[in-house]
Write a structure and sequence with these properties.
- The structure holds two protein chains of two kinds.
- By secondary structure, chain A is of the alpha/beta class.
- In chain A, 34% of the residues lie in helices and 17% in strands.
- Chain A contains 15 helices and 13 strands.
- In chain A, helix 1 (29-43) crosses helix 6.
- The longest helix of chain B has 21 residues, at 328-348.
- The chains are: A alpha/beta, B alpha/beta.
- At the A-B interface, helix 1, strand 1, strand 2, helix 2 and helix 4 of A face helix 1, helix 2, helix 3, strand 6 and helix 4 of B.
- The structure holds iron/sulfur cluster (3 copies).
- One iron/sulfur cluster binds at residues 13, 18-24, 47-48, 64-65, 67, 70-71 of chain B.
Chain lengths: 473, 475
């Protein structure tokens, strides 16, 4: 019995009798389940590795008694807490000990999803058909007709029918071993201990998730003597909750997780960080476009690649040592809707990343042009796809209009997808925002894992440059 | 049947630990146990009496006894039953309740990270990388726009680092997985957005009560209810004033660039362990999506293991994670302890960024992305001859009142810019009130419903408050 603390220090500071008595009522089934579990932990030699998750319910204070690693979970959440522990330390043996309100009512989602996840964990489910801690209310496992403080006239179908949890868990794919046991006589108690032993052993062997439902007595709220309660469990509960093995799979040990990696090279590779400084191509910030902070708006619909083009521009500028930002904005439809991108490039720091009044607009379709042309700053540039925008009207004065057949050029390359790269070329050609070599370098960087796409993209970019009207001298 | 009847220990009972449930009576095949007749004066119950003349040591009675120190095998007897006198068990068995050793802290290690090119990252990714650099290898989450990309990145990279990403059944489950993982002493986090954050708050309260670390990145969206997925800042109230039930506070960061998303996520882990308390990082939907330049630090962290962890080994066996303090004086003490920690956070963890505040007469106060619009507005206003400055709280709780106090004397007006109906302003007003400083009039620019205040709105507001004298306009 060494798995019980010698003194229950946490039970009212271990004062007086409480130092060695439980807080449970006389004859409560919890005490028996505790004894079985303690003996199992001892016989399996796992006391040091065990973490017991105490629930909310009468067994909320299970941590008073078990000399193992202890944690106390919020109502119903013990399985989630157990997952956290098992993944933090895969060598730990994690046992979630829960009552019927905790497991089968408020925690049902965690109960089922954890069981289905199938990590090697053990759940001990104490089903005594009533809420204990809160004072005898209806439990999901209360029997039909059972009188409780919230079913004073007996449980009716209006309150739902008794939930058979072991059967529910057994029909999931995750668990490997599910059994329902009872404590009402010596024979059942021997079986119960065996089942608990097997459940914890299977976890110890790394085979999978195990679940034991224990039909237990709550003499207090059944308002019975312990021996009457034993009889009640046998005669009334057992017919509704048949005992026995509900599932028992033979599974080879599989639980074998490595310790997490903390290697600098691996981290950098995962982050996509490259060593060394990027090559610089610019001779200075393109102040000719409107000062030390230039804003761009790319506007199109979902398939136009506006975001990718915007991102490439931001990347290219950052590689030149400038600051840059990109903010995407999508319409409510996730596909085919509007897709706008705001880009800022600043010599030192982008203050405001939104481009309510851009210096340059790149419009992929007529609605985008109509919507944003008027927001472009005076003296700014409007680049638009002249393949799809055939009629240009109501343009604000004092803006430079650059028509490039983005779609047409991409179609000529038999890859309509690359029209955004054509657009970048057109942007370069018509504004000279960054050197050509800069864009090509950035294209090579982003396509380093797909080199077969590089020639096409380079051509698309060159086509855009070629068809753009250069900045007037 | 290796043990014969003659060698099997018979039961013995210390009457004080019998609750008189009588379950052992039925269990005995030899009728050795009977209901007693005398009330035990120490317990007020009638213990059973044993007559072991015919006992064969089968142990069935022991297995029927719900009390750990009720019926026990004779060979475990610790005191002479005949001479048993009720004493404080501490005196009987000594003060040690467990044979487990007293654990010690295993400190974090800070390892060098080779220099690399700056990265170009969106805010959520930057935050995820900040977590990886802080040593986080466990992420628990539930998909919710616009925070999903952080979780998706973690789902992709963590398996390569032998870490774990778990998509929980709900935010409620996710926060409780953090309770478990944080309780085991490891750094862990979640990415969520406003409705999901609401769901997690019960768990946050438990984590604060149980003094567990954990980092919550909340990319705030438009509310209330399902609202929309546009950027908003209307969870400031939740983070600063409403972290679940009870006496709860957590350091709350409000980054405004992808770089800060990385840096402050890293710092969140450090402070979360320093104070054994959750840390909240509030972003807005724009910041989560915003791509910008991000420079990596020169070191990264390999986490150690704190002494208090419930790890699942011999060294940590004596530990308990729990938010329960049943006796009122104990819980009051615990609250005083928490208040002490909050006090230390208020004293040591205020952070802010001051932009052109030295001579500012109009002080804009803003955080997250609206602070960037405000920064643009400061420049705009300065060009118009108005001495504007930006005070940007980086910690919303604790509010950086000390730095604010220092710039207030020259300020004639405060304008709070936010995408919320005054939740940042409330923090500001409360902090000013508590600090008992005279304050200038407070105005605001607010947008709601997924719309951020724009630079020109801020400029217009300030101009309406203090029209530019024509002579002051700079050419
Ligand atoms: S109320 Fe019922 S379940 Fe709770 S301790 Fe008492 S007998 Fe046990
Ligand atoms: S050990 Fe067996 S025979 Fe002896 S008292 Fe207990 S139940 Fe009866
Ligand atoms: S089972 Fe234990 S507590 Fe109950 S009467 Fe027997 S000795 Fe006493």
């Amino acid at each position: 019995m060494s798995v019980f603390y010698k003194r229950f220090e946490r039970h009212s500071h271990g004062e007086g009798l409480k130092g060695q008595s439980t807080h449970y009522c006389a004859g409560c089934g919890h005490g028996l389940a505790h004894r079985d579990l303690a003996e199992v932990i001892e016989s399996l030699g796992i006391q040091d590795r065990t973490i017991l998750v105490s629930p909310v319910g009468c067994s909320v204070f299970a941590y008073y008694y078990f000399d193992v690693g202890n944690t106390q979970a919020a109502h119903g959440r013990a399985p989630a807490v157990a997952i956290g522990h098992k993944l933090a330390n895969p060598d730990s043996i994690v046992i979630s000990y829960q009552g019927d309100g905790d497991l089968a009512s408020i925690g049902l989602a965690e109960t089922i999803s954890t069981a289905q996840m199938g990590l090697p964990l053990t759940v001990i489910f104490i089903n005594n058909a009533i809420y204990g801690m809160t004072g005898g209310q209806l439990a999901p496992t209360s029997l039909m007709g059972q009188k409780t403080s919230t079913s004073p006239d007996g449980r009716s179908t209006f309150m739902g029918q008794p939930l058979r949890v072991a059967e529910l868990i057994a029909q999931l794919d995750g668990p490997i071993y599910v059994e329902r046991v009872a404590l009402y006589d010596a024979k059942q108690r021997i079986k119960a201990k065996k089942a608990i032993e097997k459940a914890v052993r299977l976890q110890k062997e790394g085979r999978g998730y195990t679940f034991i439902e224990v039909l237990a007595e709550c003499p207090t709220h059944l308002k019975m003597s312990p021996d009457q309660a034993e009889k009640w469990v046998k005669e009334h509960m057992e017919p509704i909750y048949p005992l026995g093995v509900k599932k028992d799979l033979t599974v080879e040990p599989w639980w074998d997780r490595k310790a997490p990696s903390f290697e600098a090279d691996k981290l950098l590779a995962i982050m996509g960080a490259a060593n060394g400084a990027p090559k610089r191509y610019s001779t200075g910030f393109p102040t000719h476009l409107g000062g030390t902070d230039i804003s761009f708006k790319f506007a199109g619909s979902g398939g136009d690649g506006a975001q990718t083009a915007a991102l490439l521009l931001a990347r290219a500028a950052i590689s030149e040592g400038f600051d840059a930002t990109h903010i995407p904005s999508y319409g409510p439809e996730s596909r085919g809707g509007t897709s706008y991108a705001d880009v800022h490039i600043a010599e030192t720091e982008v203050l405001n990343p939104s481009a309510a009044h851009p210096d340059v607009l790149i419009a992929f379709n007529a609605p985008s042009l109509a919507k944003f042309a008027a927001t472009v700053k005076e003296g700014g540039t409007i680049i638009y796809d002249s393949t799809v925008i055939t009629e240009v009207k109501n343009m604000p004065p004092n803006r430079r209009l650059v028509a490039v057949p983005l779609t047409g050029l991409a179609m000529a390359l038999e890859r309509p997808m690359v029209k955004n790269v054509v657009a970048l070329g057109a942007l370069q050609g018509s504004t000279g925002v960054l050197p050509v070599e800069r864009f090509l370098d950035t294209l090579r960087t982003v396509l380093k894992d797909k080199p077969q796409l590089l020639p096409l993209n380079e051509t698309a970019f060159a086509e855009g440059v070629r068809h753009a009207t250069p900045v007037p001298a | 049947m290796a043990i014969s009847a003659s060698t099997r220990p018979k039961p013995y009972l210390e009457a004080e630990y019998c609750k008189g449930c009588l379950r052992c009576i039925d269990a005995c095949p030899k009728d050795c146990i009977a209901q007693g007749t005398e009330i035990n004066p120490a317990t007020g119950v009638v213990p059973v009496v044993l007559d072991l003349a015919t006992c064969n040591g089968c142990g069935l009675c022991i297995q029927a006894c719900p009390e750990p120190y009720g019926l026990r095998p004779e060979n475990e007897r610790t005191v002479d039953a005949a001479g048993f006198e009720l004493e404080d068990p501490a005196a009987l068995f000594g003060p040690r309740d467990t044979t487990a050793p007293v654990p010690v802290d295993i400190p974090d290690r800070h390892l060098p990270l080779p220099a690399s090119e700056p990265l170009v990252l969106k805010g959520t990714y930057a935050s995820a990388l900040g977590a990886l650099l802080a040593g986080c290898r466990h992420v628990f989450g539930y998909p919710i726009t616009p925070s999903t990309e952080g979780a998706e990145l973690m789902a992709k990279v963590l398996p390569k680092l032998d870490g774990a990403f778990v998509q929980a059944v709900s935010e409620v489950a996710a926060v409780n997985m953090m309770y478990g993982c944080g309780g085991a002493g490891l750094p862990c986090m979640t990415f969520t957005s406003s409705p999901g954050f609401s769901l997690m708050l019960e768990g946050v309260s438990y984590m604060i009560g149980a003094e567990l670390p954990g980092v919550f990145v909340n990319i705030m969206r438009g509310g209330p209810g399902l609202g929309n997925i546009g950027p908003e800042q209307a969870d400031i109230k939740l983070a600063c004033r409403g972290l679940g039930h009870g006496n709860t506070q957590a350091i709350t960061f409000a980054p405004s660039t992808p770089q800060e998303m990385l840096d402050l996520t890293r710092l969140s882990f450090e402070l979360s362990f320093k104070y054994r308390n959750p840390v909240v990082l509030l972003g807005d939907g724009y910041l989560g999506q915003m791509t910008g330049v991000v420079r990596l630090p020169s070191t990264f962290t390999k986490p150690g293991l704190p002494a208090w962890a419930v790890w699942g080994d011999r060294d940590h066996r004596r530990n308990l994670v729990s938010s329960i303090h049943l006796s009122e004086p104990d819980l009051e003490q615990h609250n005083l302890h928490l208040l002490g920690k909050y006090g230390a956070m208020i004293r040591d963890e205020q952070r802010s960024d001051l932009y052109r505040c030295d001579d500012a007469e109009i002080l804009l106060v803003a955080c997250n992305t609206p602070a960037r619009m405000a920064k643009g507005a400061v420049e705009d206003l300065r060009r118009k001859g108005i001495k504007a400055g930006l005070f940007r709280p980086i910690t919303l709780w604790p509010f950086p009142i000390d730095a604010l106090k220092a710039v207030l004397p020259g300020v004639s007006r405060i304008v709070v810019v936010e995408a919320s109906p005054g939740q940042l302003e409330d923090e500001l007003r409360l902090a000013l009130d508590r600090a008992d400083v005279a304050r200038p009039p407070i105005d605001h620019v607010q947008r709601y419903g997924g719309i951020l205040p724009q630079q020109f709105e801020i400029v217009d507001k300030v101009l309406s408050l203090c029209p530019v004298q024509s002579g002051e306009v700079m050419a």
